[in-house]
Each structure stands twice: as C-alpha cells, then as structure tokens.
Batch of 2 targets.
Target 1
Amino acid sequence: MAAALYRAMLVHSLDRHSVEWYADGALLVERGRILAYGDYATISQDFPGVPTMDWRDSIIIPGLVDIHAHVAQLSGVGSDRADLLDWLEQVIYPLERCCADDDVAASIADAFFQRALAAGTTTIAAFAPPFESATERCFEVADELGIRAVMGMTLMDMNAPAYLVADSNKLIAATERLATRWHNHRRLHYCITPRFAGSCSFTLLRRCGELASATGLPIQTHLAESRAELELIANLFPESSDYTDVYQRAGLLTDKTILAHCIHLSTTELERLSTASPAIAHCPASNTYLQSGIMPLVEYLDRWNLRVGLGTDIGAGYHASILDEARTAREHAKLRRMSQQTLRVPSHAEAFYLATLGGAIALSLGDEVGNFLPGKAADFVRIRRAPYRTITTTDDALAYVLYAASDSIYATMIEGIPVWQKP
Ligand SMILES: [Zn+2]
C-alpha cells in the first residue's frame, strides 16, 4: 500500500501525564505503519507529493484498547442480578452453554467484534467461550474482521455446571492446541484464560502457571471483584493467606497477567501486585452494574504504581465503548472524592491514556500500538467534530473526546485499512 497523509486534528499520549495535540495535524502512514506525525505544515513539507486525505472536520486518536470482555456474554447484556455469583449462575452459565453450538458462537463473535470496531476499539482482550471449537470460531471471526485480539478459551474445572467444566488435562491440551494455531497469527495473540479461582481447581491454576512460564504466553483472569467472591475463595482455598496468594502460588502473577477488577484488595496484596507487576483491568461500568464496588483507581496509579487499562467487561458491562469507560472511571473517582476529600480525580490526560497507550502497555503491546510514534501500527480512529464545538487547547480536545465523542466515531482504521466506517 502506498503512503497516505491524513490531515486532521491529532491527539495522543506520550505517557500517563503527557499528551501531544496538533490543531492542524497530519499522520503519515505507509504499508500499515506510522511513518511520521506532527503539524500538517511540517509533515507535508518533509514528505511532498503524498496523497492527502482531507479530514479537517475530524479528530484522529489512536485506536482504543479494551483489555477485558467476554465474547459469549454479549447476548446477556442487561440481565443483572443481586451480585456477581448469582449473576454467573443464573444468567451467564446457561448463556455460555449456547456457544457449544459453533455457529451460534461465530455469530455472537461477529456481533461482538463488530460492536468493538464501531466503538473505535482496535485492540481487545477477550475471554472466548469455554469450548475449544467455539474458541476456534471466535479466532476465525476476529481474523476475518481484522481486529487485534488477545484471546483464550475460558477454563473451568469445578464449581460450575457440568456442561461448562472439563478435566484439567483436557483443558490444558486444548489450550496448547489453540495457542499453537493462533498465537502471533497475524494480529492475534493467545492468552491462557482460567476464569477465576472460584471455578478452577488449584491443579488447573498451577498447570496454567506452568504453561505460561514454559511458553511466555499472557494470562487473563479475575481477582477480587465482589465481597461474596472473596468469601467463596477463602472457603475453597483455606491454605491460602488471601485471594492474591492463590494466584501467586499457582505461578499466575506475572508481568504478562491481566487481572480484571481488583476492587477488594488488602495492603499486603497490593504490595505483592506492585512487585509482580501484572496489569489491572479497570471496568467501572461493570462494577457498579453488579454492585461489586468502586476500584480505588487513583491510589493504584499514585501509590502502587500499577499498570492499569480499561475494560468494557461485556456482558456485565453493557456497552462497547472504551471512551465511555474512561469517562466513567473519572466519574467514579469523583463519587469517591465526595466522601473523601483528600482523594483526587484523574485528569483528562490520564483517562485518555488509560483508554489508549495505558491499555496497550497493559497488554504488553505498547511497542506496537497505543500512540502515533513512528514505526507503530497505524491503528487509529476518526472522530467527527461537532461544528459548534470550539477546541483551542489540548485539554479542550481531550474533554471533547472523552465526554462528547463516543457517538461520533466515523471510521476505525487498523494498519491503515478501514475496518469499520459509519454507514
Ligand atoms: Zn470479566
């Protein structure tokens, strides 16, 4: 593919606090990679003669990164229950059973990934259904649509209906086959996916840890989402000092592990997380939906220096937009501040970072995507600007993107190719 120059307002993160904004900017893309970015005047002079796409009515942001969602749960959106454990048993487990039919799994996967692309998500970490052939179909669909996905078959060997569990030997063998086929296949990555300690025996968890250590594959699971869950884990693993200890003893706390929620953690658990450096998937919409709690985001960033990204957590989360999650993360921090004035609210720059570069770093893909540094994949989103909106500063641009633009996504591009465009 020849080079193309996209002329538009540009905004992207360099780190958690630094954002670059170009009112009349340009993004130069060649063969799916970013060659240069900056002021239009400079870039067009440095690279004369490149065909220019005039997108001056739009803002370009890096592709959004969703670091936690469940493919099979899309059809259960909106069916909440009193808490996480009731919801799993009454709503989610019966629904995941439907994905034993490969065609059902494929059609749900198609809707799931299309929804993500329409929301500007170019990279997503997802739990595939708890069946090997359905997981195959999910990878095939993701591959066809061109989305960047980190995904794995959801593993359970106990404490769930018989139709969803299997013997740990079989689950590990299936994981190995799927990983051989899909890990690093084009834009796809395989992720070892034990659901959570509540539905995995210690044998299964330990074997997942051993496989991760032998292969270097990433791991995704859930940690400390609800208080009832903490009680369940304490009863199931009395030999462990706490929930985090279960994963640590199983070899699952690595710098390639994604832990969803992490709401109810003790200081000693946070100390261990801070050392082991897993990524935390913050899913604020899901957390209030299931009345699980509000994750102390600012403490995790400021005191514990944890790597945090954002997740929609479909289907406890009810929408596909990471911009909405970024906004909700700020709003939840405000709710906490109302009762504890010493707390601060994350800046627009931090919320935007979590939705883009922070998420990419959480998935160990920070060298590949997340911002516009030359050499990275040209994954970006075109957002149409409302004509009545005046944007004259970096913060204006961020405020608009975070609070007023999730319904103005016009095109989603991956490696310079449109993978979704507004009909
Ligand atoms: Zn989840």
Note: The longest helix spans residues 322-339.
Target 2
Amino acid sequence: MGTVLAVVSQKGGVGKTTTAINLACALARRGRKTLLVDVDPQGAVRHGVGLAGAGQPPGLADVLAGTHELQDVVLATPLPWLRVLLAGSVSDAAEHETYQAQVAGSPMLGELFSRARGRGYLVIVDTPPGLGAVTRQVLAHSQHVIVPLQSEPLALQTTTQILRAIRDAAVGNPALVLDGVLLTMVEEGNAVSQRVAGYVRDQLPPELLFETVIPRTMASIEAFAAGQPVVLHSPDDPAALAYTRLADLLDARLS
Ligand SMILES: Nc1ncnc2c1ncn2[C@@H]1O[C@H](COP(=O)(O)OP(=O)(O)OP(=O)(O)O)[C@@H](O)[C@H]1O
Ligand SMILES: [Mg+2]
C-alpha cells in the first residue's frame, strides 16, 4: 500500500513547490514509485519539472471539469519511477475560485489518492498557500505532512495556525502524521537567518522540527530557471544534498 505526503504552509513563497519537486525526484531516484500531484491552481510544478514548453498540458482541473480521464493526464517524466499529475487548465483568478470549489465539493481527490495508494504509489502533493478548501481536502486524505518554514523574521507567526489546522484535520483523519517542520532558505552567513533558525529550534519541540535544513543556494535559483529540480540539476549543491538527505530519512519512515 502506498502513502500520501502533503507539503503545506500558511504562507506563500516558503519553498513548498521546491520541496515537493525535489523530494519526489530524490525518492523516485531511490526507486520509490512516486506520483507528484499539483493541486495548486498556480500550477508551478509544471515549470519545476521542465514541462513548461508550448501549450498547457491537461491535469487535475481538466479531470474535475469532466473533459479528460484521470489515466490520460498522468504524465511520464525522464525519471522512470516518477509520474506527475499537473494542475491543468486553470488560468485566471475567477477560474481559481471555480477550481477550489470543485476540488472541495468533489470526492475525486480522495478517490485519486486511494487509487494511487492501492497501486503502491508514494503520492507527494504540492498545495496552494493558506488553509483554503483545497488544502483542507488534501489533509483529509493524507497520511503524512511536511510544513516548510522559510528562515526569515516573523517566520513562526503563521506556524501556529498551520499546526492547529493539521491537528484539526487529524481529528477527522486519525491516520495523519505531521512528519515535521522543515526550515528552508537558511542563509549560512546571514546573522538574521541564523538567528531565526535558532529561535525556531528553541520554540518548536525537537520532534516537530527536521534536523536537516535547506540552505538558500544560487544553484536552487538556477535550477528553477532551468526548469529542473536542484537534486537533478546540481546534485552536489548543498540544497540538493539536504533534500537528498531528507528523502533518505523519509524513505525509511514512509511505509
Ligand atoms: N533553497 C533555496 N535556495 C534559493 N532559492 C530557493 C530555495 N528554495 C526555494 N527557492 C526559491 O524561492 C521561491 C519560492 O519557492 P517555491 O515556489 O518553492 O515556494 P512556494 O511555497 O511553493 O510558493 P507558493 O506559495 O507561491 O506556491 C522560488 O523562486 C524558488 O526558486
Ligand atoms: Mg508553490
């Protein structure tokens, strides 16, 4: 039986998509049968896995709209063990709202996850920022969750909210386990960033915080611009090594 790992955060721009893509690639490279699912109508996964070429490939939104079948929109990638399900055709703000309402009102997400689990997939889900209907649906049907936290002042401010939302979701879905908060974009030589990281370590119970932190690196930015996960683009870069270490830890933990 497979399992579902959601990457969620209250705040935007903290490294959710980067984390979801890099973990998916690192785990698939280890031979884990992995399905990366983008439920964020912004559709950033498509850029991160190099599918940003001409035209928008269909995805989840198209299945929800009833124009495509699920089996036709799960895409192969250059990694043999990695498949992706993109957000699909959602373009402007009005459509984002329709999409959110459709996801929230449809049993499809739960059905999709349980089908993928039945086929032995590790499903990694990239979510939109915040605690909207889509994220709540994802949490209702996940077994694991990771919360990226960008190492910047006030980082912890929104963390209490997301941790509370995860606790609430676990009431209806007792299988849900918070694997940990992941510090991202930590800057080695930056006193503020280091102070925030230290503060987060002081404030959160140690079992809730991954010891591995993701450094902010140029290679991560270059990889993103090149439409590739940093673990494939620059495997020796410190951020790539950190994601690989985290994937090793999770591989052992995600049964
Ligand atoms: N370790 C890193 N080093 C340098 N830049 C990074 C790193 N991780 C992420 N970034 C950059 O930070 C920006 C935000 O990252 P990302 O898109 O993964 O965040 P997100 O939480 O998914 O954002 P959103 O909430 O908008 O979906 C991107 O430009 C990304 O390339
Ligand atoms: Mg994102």
Note: The domain at 3-253 is CATH 3.40.50.300 (Rossmann fold).
